[in-house]
């Protein structure tokens, strides 16, 4: 996967944001997608943003933990883990984290714009 599509440090294009939103919707649409036992059922087709965001953050965290474990196993000399597997997992975790930071930045920016609106 090439990093050439990123214009600069911290820059993210609209296509990546749309892809992340699609992933959030897909994660939220999974059966049991973040709905806890005993929680009221929501109508089909309605996506709760908080649940989608939580699922996305949990996935990013899981990717970071997996990358760390693969890195430790490779460093310890585990023959089942190749350098390319460890590096790819680390890059996936890094890209996921960067995308999450960009989403957070957009949310904070939107919050500030809403708070500065005249009522």
Number of E-type strands: 0
Helix-strand pattern: HHH
Going by helix content, strand content and strand pairing, the class is: mainly alpha
Rg over alpha carbons: 18 Å
CA(first)-CA(last) distance: 47 Å
Subcellular location: Bacterial flagellum basal body
Main location: other
GO molecular function: cytoskeletal motor activity; structural molecule activity
InterPro entries: FliE
Task: Describe this protein's structure.
It is a single chain. The protein is mostly helical and 119 residues long. The protein is 64% helix and 0% strand. The relative contact order is 0.11. InterPro entries: FliE. One of its GO terms (molecular function) is cytoskeletal motor activity.
Short synopsis of the structure:
The chain is an all-alpha fold and 119 residues long.
